[in-house]
Structures are given as C-alpha cells and as structure tokens.
Amino acid sequence: VLPSTPEFIKALDISHAMDGEPMIAWSMNGADLPFLNGYPIRLVVPGYFGTYWIKHLSEIEVVDHTYDGFFMAKGYRVPDNDCFCIAPGTTAAQTQPISRLPVRSFITSVKQGDVLPLNKSVVLKGIAFDGGVGVNKVEVSIDGGKHWREARLGQDLGRFSFREWTLPITFHSKGATALMVRASNSAGETQPLRADWNPGGYRRHVVETSHVTVA
Ligand SMILES: Nc1nc2c(c(=O)[nH]1)N[C@H]1C(S)=C(S)[C@@H](COP(=O)(O)O)O[C@H]1N2
Ligand SMILES: [Mo]
Question: What strands lie across the sheet with 135-141, from one edge to the other?
Fold first, then answer.
C-alpha cells in the first residue's frame, strides 16, 4: 500500500490574491512550463515562498473563513514572532504560515575552496533579493566579518528580481580567509551573522560565508 498525503491545497488572503501580484503562469521563456515545474498551469506568488506556487493548478475556491487544511494549519508554519525563530530544540508557543522571503545574498563569482591572487584586483560579483521591499544595500567582508565594504548595486529590474552587485577587491596578505556578503532592504531588514532557528528549518537567510585561500 502506498502512503497517502493530504491534497496539496494552499491559501492566500483574499486581498493578497486580488492585489494584482499573484498570477497564473502557463509559459516560461516562450515555452510551455516543464512538467516538473507545474505544466500546464502554475500559480506564481511573487515574494512568497515556493510552497504557495501551486503546480498543475486545478481549482481555486473562495472561502469565507481562514482555510485550515493540512498544508496551512499543520505544515509550512514558522514561529509567530519578529524573527520567526526560537531557541534550538524548543517548541514555539504560537506559529503562523510561512509567507514572504527574507532578504538574502550570495557571492556567485567565487566558490568555497577557490584560490585567489595576492595584490591583484579581483571583481567579486553576486546577487541579492528579498520579498519585494527592495534591496538597498549589499556589504561584503573579505576578512571573515571584521570589516565590511559596500558593493555597487546593478540595475533594479523590479521588486522581485535578483539585484546584481559587484565589488573590486585586492588581497594584501596570503593565507586562508573568509568572504561574506550581507544584504539589507529599504524596510531596514538585514541578514543575521548567525543562523536563527525554527523547527522546519525554514527561511534560512544567515550571511553566507565562502572560505578561500589567497596565494
Ligand atoms: N501541486 C503541487 N504544487 C506544489 C507542491 C506540491 O507538493 N504539489 N509543492 C510546493 C513546494 S513546497 C515548492 S518548494 C515548490 C517547488 O517548485 P519547483 O519544483 O518548481 O522548484 O512547488 C510548490 N508547488
Ligand atoms: Mo518546498
């Protein structure tokens, strides 16, 4: 006997569903959606976690109460407080459905373990994004978090787009070091230096670190 799971049903507040942002997608880059990404149609909820982006969408129902099916009332929930986090191993007093993406950033031009040149300019590159408020600052550290420098932001392609950033850097000493990147948005939100915790392991947005060597 195969195990069964509840039907995959998610809910949005009516005002959110009607605010013009959520959409039904039937095509991506001019082609049908791939089956694994939801063919023939899929819900797209900009700024919200992927769990709301229902694939193979078959039904939309308007209800006059807070929907309390499994994937809203039991699954995909986070602690109901400002950081959506609690002390590791504890249980949250109150939870709420996961919703918007926190602000996050990545270095994309260098990877863990890379060897970078001494006394030579290197342009670090990466991306940042958030849940739709808008990234307004990206800071980079090349010494494991002791000093931070502001990167140059690329073109703003829209509230839900990746924002590219660049920063020319030069290493003046040899050896192992850690590169870190931290983005902020115009609501004053930023990334924590230490990962916060919740039972589902959701919405990781700690400052990412890449260990590299200068030689
Ligand atoms: N029909 C259906 N849609 C679904 C799911 C599902 O289980 N069934 N999972 C959701 C979750 S939890 C995620 S993270 C995304 C993953 O979408 P992707 O495979 O395009 O990355 O699909 C969402 N849409
Ligand atoms: Mo997911």
Answer: 115-116, 208-214, 175-185, 135-141, 149-150
Task: Give, for 15, the enclosing helix (H) or strand (E).
Answer: helix 14-17
Residue 83 has, within 13 A of its CA and on its CB side, a CA count of: 15
Q: Hey, which of 44, 54, 55, 203 would you mutate to test ligand 1's pocket, going by the most ligand atoms within 8 Å of its Cβ?
A: 55
Centre of ligand 1 to C-alpha 37, Å, is 8
- With a 6 A CB cut-off, is 81 part of the ligand 1 pocket? no
* Predicted model pTM: 0.93
Question: Which residue's alpha carbon is at the smallest distance from atom 11 of ligand 1?
Answer: 51
Structure tokens at 28: 């991506």
Q: From atom 19 of ligand 1, which residue's Cα is the shortest distance away?
A: 37
pLDDT, tens digit only, all 215 positions of the chain: 899 999 999 999 999 999 999 999 999 999 999 999 999 999 999 999 999 999 999 999 999 999 999 999 999 999 999 999 999 999 999 999 999 999 999 999 999 999 999 999 999 999 999 999 999 999 999 999 999 999 999 999 999 999 999 999 999 999 999 999 999 999 999 999 999 999 999 999 999 999 999 99
Instruction: Answer yes or no: is the C-beta of 166 below 6 A from any ligand 1 atom.
Output: no
134 C-alpha vs ligand 1 centroid, how far in Å?
25
Q: Which ligand is nearest to the CA of 52?
A: 1
